Amino acid sequence: MIVCGIDVCKLSVAACVLAEKPKDPRQLYFDIDFHKFEANVKGIKALLALKPDVAVMEPTGVNYSKLWATKLAREGVKVVLVGHTQLRHYRDAHLGLPDKDDDADALALACYYWDYCEDNRRFVQVREFPIVRIRELVLRLSHLARVQSPIINRIRQDLAWQFPEVALSKSDRLWAWLAGRVKSKRFDSEYAGSAGLGLTDTVGLHAERLCLIHLEEKAIEDELRGYLDDAQFLPYRSVFKQFGFGDRVQAIVLSQIYPFENYLDNGRAIVKIRKGRKSGKPTKRYLSLRRFMKALGVAPTENSSGDKQNRSVVGGSDLCRRSLWQWIFTRVEPHKSRGTNPILNELGKDLDEYKAMGRPIKLARITVAAKAVKLLFKELLLTQRD
User: Fold this and answer.
1) What is the Cα–Cα distance from 22 to 24, expressed in whole angstroms?
2) Which domains does the chain have, with CATH numbers?
């Protein structure tokens, strides 16, 4: 078996080919010839000419690694992914490589596979196309949401002296009117009597950019809705609706947790009984739930030293964590948004109590988000038993 560790850079890769598990990886780092391939036709052909059986990579976003992973997979090469944290710990603590560079990462990736190829849990799951595409689309929507803010801020700053009467308007129709895409008697009338100094072409150009972004968002949301309507996702969506998740939040959560069976063992949540480190008594460890919470970015991690104890939420999906916070702002926190939904009312009641107790608002919200994820795990687990 030929294993190729591939460290992906922006427009190139470093590759290390191993036909067997090395006895001394540290010495091999100085002796072996590493390969460098550019992201062009010649470089891709040269990589494929190595004829690897397995390619080991890090999940470097959806842009840089996508080209190489797709080309390798089309040639029948098995592509496996190693998490960033796992690789860093393995390279430093297990291999003791002298430097952190592209060659060291490529060697560590190849060695990692030789050590753990029998344990699938050591590798990041390679998802099927529909869920991969859903993740690509939600990341694109997240990007478009970020680029809108500075454009809107620039328009408002200009409108403050050009057309101040609408500078704080939140109407999307205003952007279309400023761009000349629609007519509006209301804005025409207000502009005719405005105290401003008059609109400039720059405002129109910025407004046009916003309109184009909104059109792209709509096209992405339409495509996303088509994937979400797939029959394999219907059991998940029925649970998501109990929580009042919108399409975007549904897509983001789904992209992190599908398939739910990966968190279970023969359809059951994994619970281990271990001796407590402090109490010394048998303690239940809810491993499936812990992994589920970590994937969604709400699992607390302890970082203590001496008398100092600190627990914070690290790891998991930042995008998912932000989406859950936005969901709390829009569906859980406002009383009128809860309606008669029992889950939203239960979570909202907890949040109200935390506020009344004087608990810091950030802590209150993340506590409620963690409880929501626990409830979500419970409801998804019930669908496995039906």
Assistant:
1) 6
2) 3-122 (3.30.420.10), 129-228 (1.10.287.4070), 235-385 (no CATH)
